[in-house]
Amino acid sequence: MRYDTITLASASPRRQALLGQIGVAHTVDPADVDESRRPGEAPREYVLRLARAKAESVFRRRPGALVLGADTAVVLDGELFGKPLDQNESVRMLRALGGRTHEVLTAVAVRHTAGADARLSVSEVSLRALSDAECRRYWDTGEPRGKAGGYAIQGLAATFIERLAGSYSGVVGLPLAETAALLGAAGLRLWMDGAHA
Q: Is 117 a catalytic residue?
């Protein structure tokens, strides 16, 4: 089966913009899944499970669609850093990440009539050391809210980044090489296939 459009199981404007960047037409239908981590669940297994669950959840509502789900997590020394709930948690996260190298895991999954598949992008990000005052000022900008690890590499936090090894788009929230490979294998017409010629 061939597809001309997909359904994105996320309300993330960053993921929408990244799909637009590579010319993927999409509709948005955010998944509603329990994002609780299971006891003893490794971070890589966790993000893969959530990406798959999001894609599956929306596919059940839209049978016949090509659905894309994704999940991102920041990991330092085996600890998973989610989205900060308040300024104190944001400062704690950024102070822990500052002066260190952490992993950003982004899993992307597809679900369609012929089956399902998923891939994992692993990137390493090094932040410079950050002061409490900087972290508090950053929180006040509003940018850390809703971001894994409490920062947005594509925004003001770019000034914190000393080194990135891996996928920039994966750190933003959707690794485009892996995404394009999955969507192409699932039957989506991509720009490199001459879809827009």
A: no
